[in-house]
Structures are given as structure tokens and as C-alpha cells.
Automatic annotation (TrEMBL), chain A:
Pfam families attached to this UniProt entry: ABC_tran
UniProt keyword terms in alphabetical order: ATP-binding, Nucleotide-binding, Transport
Protein name in the entry: Amino acid ABC transporter ATP-binding protein
Family statement: Belongs to the ABC transporter superfamily.
Organism: Mesorhizobium helmanticense
SMART domains attached to this UniProt entry: AAA
Domain ABC transporter: 2-236
GO molecular function: ATP binding; ATP hydrolysis activity
Gene Ontology biological-process annotations: quaternary ammonium group transport
Keyword Nucleotide-binding: yes
TrEMBL record, chain B:
InterPro entries: ABC_transp_perm/SBD, MetI-like, MetI-like_sf
Family, as annotated: Belongs to the binding-protein-dependent transport system permease family.
Keyword check for Transmembrane: yes
GO biological process, one term: transmembrane transport
Protein's recorded name: ABC transporter
GO cellular component, one term: plasma membrane
Entry's transmembrane regions: 12-32, 59-82, 103-120, 126-152, 173-197, 217-241
Amino acid sequence: MIEIEGITKRYDATTVVDDVSMLIEPRTIAVIVGTSGSGKTTLLRMINRLVEPTAGVIKLDGADNRSLPGYELRRSIGYAIQGHGLFPHRTVAQNIATVPVLLGWDKARIKARVDELMTLYQLDPEAFGPRYPHELSGGQQQRVGVARALAAEPHVLLMDEPFGALDPIIRNKAQEDLLAIQKRFGTTIILVTHDMEEAVHMGDKIAVMDAGKLVQYARPAEILAKPASAFVETLVGASEKPFRLLSLGRVRDAVEKGTAEGEAIPGDASQRDALAELLWSGRPALPVKGDDGKPLGRVTVDGLVKRAARPA
Amino acid sequence: MKEAGVKTWLPSLLRLALAVLLVAFVTNPGWFEPLLKPLTENNAPVIYNQGSLLTLTLLHLRTVLIATVAATIVAVALAILVTRPAGVEFLPLSRSLVNIGQTFPPVAVLALAVPAVGFGEKPTLIALFLYGLLPIFENALTGLTTLPANVVEAARGAGMTGWQRLTKVELPLSAPIILGGIRLSVVISLATATIGSTVAAKTLGEVIIAGLLSNNLAFVLQGGLIVAALAVLIYDGLSAIERYTARRMGREAQ
């Protein structure tokens, strides 16, 4: 649980973050969205005290984050940034081991943890461990960056546009990987982005920031349905709203009774993908299959269109 | 392919030949007597005869080494100090101090230092030390202030203390640039050390000065050539170390 209470940051006369309060539930993903200069990165950096607030308190599991020296606090919080910031003079394994080494873990434990994370991120420890960051592709570097942030088993992971430098295909994969890992470790993640698509896709809750103020903090469906201001509405993108709303739902939740012709779509796919497939193939309905491959029913264009409408 | 091959081994071969010649000359200068003979008049000695060239070469190198090590320690320490938040205000002051060290002619330093510390190696060390500070300081400053921002940010975010960031990230990443400064400083000092012999320091300058005093071109030439060969070889050697560290620090692409 992360409690942010009345946090303000001023540089001389400019207020960068203005009296922000929000509560982040444990084991959830909170996404902070906003344009550049909205104060979202500063807010994130005040959680691990890379920036000291002018006023206000941030509590992690009830404890004020100023009760420890800054560097000790930061060792207990994962931190991943855009462009990964890997140490170019250290091998992949040494990079991932950074925080455990600072914490003084013994060698065997560090090696076990590094191997575990590399395997989890589909990087063979034998092959990639001794390599240097510049020998890896962009996507691999990004994975090492996140693995390094997770190395000391932090409860909280802060991410500042971690996928910003990736091409769209690798970005999708990186997002899926992160969601899977978040489920596995139960880490609380706070992610900063300017991409509403990413926010809707990743966030359990979305915090919209504008000019240092927290404009709206709510579940993605609510942000889409009831934007608190014209600014949020613009950020969401009026023409994108129905599709974003659909992207939140799984096909299995939109299943109707009956059968349809053609290849089945998995129940875990998003409703937006199903609608896209329907429109593209010009069919009125698609069969749906479960994880075990058994048919669950079908989805129809009409049914999905109803779901894309503004919720009451 | 064949041409590229020649290009890569030819410089190494030339360097090796130069090194062999240099060692042969300082250990057995007599072998080269016929070559230098035409430069002398009136049956003057061809090879320097008031001391061993080998000893003078080693003493010359020792003087340069001591001065450079001292200059490196002071210049790097100063650069570290002024790049910490607490030391930023000393940046202009240290810059001017180091600049004065460079602009003050070494000859003048010798003249001023002799009354204070006496004749011999000491005034030379002082002059070389002051003269060598600037390149090392400026390079260390460049290295420490042009580190990739997200790497430094990641080091802070991982929970490194200021000292850990300096020793584990900032200094290793600046090492190639700092080495570049040391290389410049060493080459300047190798040449400048010769004037130390005007105040009785044992350097290769002794040979050159003896040649000038007795109008013996052979002496001047042999002293000058040994210093030049040393400078070329040491410059190349340090450049190679620099390239190697740059590769290790992943800075080659920049």
C-alpha cells in the first residue's frame, strides 16, 4: 500500500507537483499519464526520494519514506527507466545483480536470483550472463533493465516510460511480460507514461496529471466513460474511446449462445481484437474457444457494438 | 583483404623496429658511432661520454613518471571535488589555478623553485607537475560531466551511495577520457623534462646541453632522438590502453 498525501514540489516559483493525494492498493498497477511537463515523473521520483518533496508525506506500507536514508530506501524499491540505463562496463549478470550486491547477499543467492530472472525473461543465463549490454538488442536491453529493477525482490516497482524506446511489436511483448511477472510476484507497480493506450492496457487504476495537479484517479473504464475534464477527454481521444473501452474486456465475457462458422478466437483475446477480426472478415459472428480448445459459444458484431457504447 | 592486412601490421612493425633501435642505442651507443661521426668536427667525441645514456634515459623516465603520477592524483582528485554538489563553487577557482600552472613557463618555475628547494631533480619535478595538471584535470572534468544521464540516474535509483556511484560507475566510465589526459601530459613532460638539466637534474637534457655548449651536433641529435623515440612509443602504448578501456567501458560507439 502506497499512500501519497498532499505531496507538493516547488522549484523556486514554479510548482511542478501541486498537492497530489492518492492511494495505491498493494499488488496492483497504477499508471500515471500526462503530457510532458505535467509533473508525472517528478511525482514518481518523490516516491523513492530521487526528488525530495517540498510538502506532504508518502507512506509505504504505513511507514514514512523518510524514515530510512535515501539510498537504503531506494534499494528496497525497484526502479526502471526509459532507455534502461544499463551500466555499459558491466556484464548483463553483473547489471542484474546490482542491488543484491549492494545489499550484501551471498554469492550463491545472487547467482540463483540472476539465473531465475534471466530464465523468466527468456535470456539464457549461460549465453547472455557474460555479455555486455551493447551486445544485446533493444528489446533484450529493456528486459535486462526490468530484471535489474526486480532483482532484490522489491514489493514496489517504479517505472518511468520503460517501454518508450521500443518499437511497437517489442513494446507489446514487453507489456505482456510485465503483466505476467506482476501476477507472479504480486509486485505493486507505478508506471509513468504519456501513452493512453498503454495506460488503459496496463493499469488497474489510471491517474491523469495536468500542470502538476491530479485531475482524475479512477479505473480505466471510468476514465473512458466519465472523463473528469476536457483535458482528460482530449487525452483519451474522443474517436478512440469505444475501442479503448472494448480493449478492456475479454472475449469470454461477451460470449453469446450459439455457433458460428470459421476459425475460433480464444476467450482470453480482447473484445477489440474480436471486433477487428469480425469487421475485417465481414462476418456477423465468430466462434469462441476456451483455454482447453472447447467451444464456449460465439461473439457477434451487434453484441460487441452494444458493449462499446458509453456506459450508463 | 590483403591491403587491410598490410595496414594493420605495418604500424606495429615500425613501432617494434623503433623500440629495438632505441634499446640498442641506449645500451650500445658505440654501434652507431659511424652514423653520427659526420656531425662532429675536430675529432670531438661522437657518443656522449660524461655518463651512461642508459642511466640518463632511466632517470629521465623516472622523473616524468613521478611528476605524472603526482599530477594525476591531484588533478583527478580536484576534478572529483568540483563535480560533487558540495564542490561546484570551487570549479572556477580550480580552473584558474590549473590554468596558471600551464601558462607559467616551466623555465620560470625552475628559476623560482631552485632558491626554495635547491638544484637537482626537485625543481624539475615541481615544474613538470604544474605543467602536467591541466590536460589531466580538463579531461577528468569532461569525463565526469559527460556521463550518460540515464546510467547515472539508474545508479542513484538502484540505491548506490555517492561514493559507490563514484567508484563503481563514474570513474570507470570516465577512465578512457582521463587516460587521454594522462597521455597528453606524459608526452609534454617527456619533452619538457630536458630543461631540468639546466638546474642539474639528471635527464637526457644533459646530453643536449653538453652538445650545445661544446658545439657538438652529434650530442644534440642523440639526446633529442632518444626523447622523441620515447615520446612516440609511450604515446602509442597509452593510446592502445585507452582504446582497450574504451571498449571495455562500452564507450567506443560514442
